[in-house]
Amino acid sequence: MRDPRALIAAAIAAAAFLLAAVAVAAPPAPAGTVTFVAGEATRSAAGKTEKLAPGSAVYQGDLLETQKRTRLEVKLADQSVVRLGPSSKANLQAAAFGKTVEERKVSAKLLVGKVWANVAKAVGGEQRFEVQTENAVAGVRGTTFRVDAATDRSVVVRVYSGTVAVASGPIPRPEHQAAGKPERRQIAGPQQVSREQWERIVTTMMAVRVSSEGVPTEPETFALATAGQDEWEEWNRSRDAER
């Protein structure tokens, strides 16, 4: 007769193995869901391409692509909305929706085309939401903005509400320190800022343009498009009004 303790140990080991197998096999949580698509749009990951339809799940790491005359809307897990215009291609590089600033980040790489973002206000603090292009990074400090990336690598960022930091590299973020006496640090003296280190703060109804060589303009005001002037803007504004 086998030792009961050996049987119990074997059962526990088997259960642990099954739990581990389930954990490994469990699919990742979706980053968002397609809420609108007109035309043909796809998501690609791990060498596989899937046609998107309303209700389709979108995941971190997906390459989203739209064809001509296509519009795509994705609602993320934090209720932010991202829309891609016709002939656009974007990679959803990061999609984390934790409770702390460090655990919240959405980052998309716009390879070409147009993206419109309506960013939900983070519960309990700052939202880290960035759209990258070949020549610039637009980091949200507000709500609604669009990024147009041309095939020649030039970029236009327009802010419709809030504030967006547009930079040539990662957006600087304040460090979150524990409560108590702040750490004293020596501050470097004035120094020349190279073109690679530039940053522009773009506020409501302001726009900044970045040339194909990576040279930015100063932010300047722009007016809302009149009827029939910019169908992409008109459609996005109407969709935002329905939220």
Please render the helix and strand layout as text.
Blueprint: H1 4-25, E1 32-38, E2 41-45, E3 48-51, E4 57-58, E5 63-66, E6 71-76, E7 81-84, E8 89-97, E9 104-118, E10 129-132, E11 137-140, E12 144-149, E13 155-161, E14 163-167, E15 199-203, E16 206-210, E17 220-221, H2 231-242
Parallel strand pairs: 9-10
Antiparallel strand pairs: 1-4, 1-6, 2-3, 2-5, 5-8, 6-7, 7-9, 8-9, 9-12, 10-11, 11-14, 12-13, 13-16, 14-15, 16-17
Characterization of the model:
The protein is mostly beta strands and 243 residues long. It has one domain: Sandwich (Jelly Rolls), CATH 2.60.120. Helix content is 14%, strand content 39%. It has a 17-stranded mixed sheet that branches. A hairpin with a 2-residue loop joins β2 and β3. The protein starts with a helix and ends with a helix. About 8% of the residues have low confidence.
In summary, what is this structure?
Helix content is 14%, strand content 39%. It is mostly beta strands.
Helical segment tally? Answer: 2
- Summarize the amount of helix as a percent range: 10-25%
Q: Indicate the low-confidence ranges by residue numbers.
A: 174-182, 184-193
The tally of strands reads: 17
Rg, alpha carbons: 22 Å
State the oligomer.
Answer: single chain
Average pLDDT level: 83
The helix/strand series, from N terminus to C terminus, equals HEEEEEEEEEEEEEEEEEH
The rough form would be described as globular
CATH topology: Jelly Rolls
The end-to-end span amounts to 69 Å
Estimated structural class: mainly beta
Proportion of strand residues: 35-45%
Q: How can the largest sheet be summarized?
A: 17 strands, mixed
